[in-house]
Amino acid sequence: MRVYDSVILNEDLPKHSIRAGTVGVIVDDFKSDEGIFLVECFDKDGNTIETVSARADQLTVTLADFHDGEAVALLHDFPAQRLLRGQVGTIKRRTGVGVYEVEFAIDGRTQVKIPLHAGQIMLLHWQRAELVP
Questions:
Q1: How many Å apart are CA 18 and CA 31, to the nearest integer?
Q2: Using one digit for the tens of pLDDT, what is the confidence trace for 48-92?
Q3: CA distances from 103 to 32, 72, 82, 83, 113 (A)
Q4: Ordered structural domains, the chain, with CATH
Q5: Which of 48, 1, 40 is nearest to 24 (CA)?
Q6: How many other CB atoms sit within 10 Å of the CB of residue 8?
Q7: How many Å from the N-terminal Cα to the C-terminal Cα in the chain?
Q8: pTM of the predicted model, to two decimals?
Q9: Which of 24, 47, 99, 118 is deepest in the core (most CB within 10 A)?
């Protein structure tokens, strides 16, 4: 989970009178307290109800936010563009809410840029493995 991801609450937050199913957006992650996020919660009309802290297990990401330059992989085939599921591309820019222009290389050289919704791609994340002595 990252800042600007859209989320839904998995459980009630009685202290704040906020019910499970409430939608929100992550506005901050507390680096000093891993797994805790500041979430702006909204009513059905999109008005802010309250900004609350919530644990990762209390949230489900409904729309991930990607950033320029990040590597992503396709979740589906796009035959018209000669792109296959799993093919890796690069986010070039956000073009709308949950929509990104993604660039792919075909045959190692041809560049194809297509607009994709966040639900059509997944973030690739590489983390250096810890060496075990």
A1: 24
A2: 999 999 999 999 888 778 889 999 999 999 999 999 999 999 999
A3: 35, 10, 13, 11, 4
A4: 6-63 (2.30.30), 71-123 (2.30.30.40)
A5: 40
A6: 15
A7: 31
A8: 0.61
A9: 24
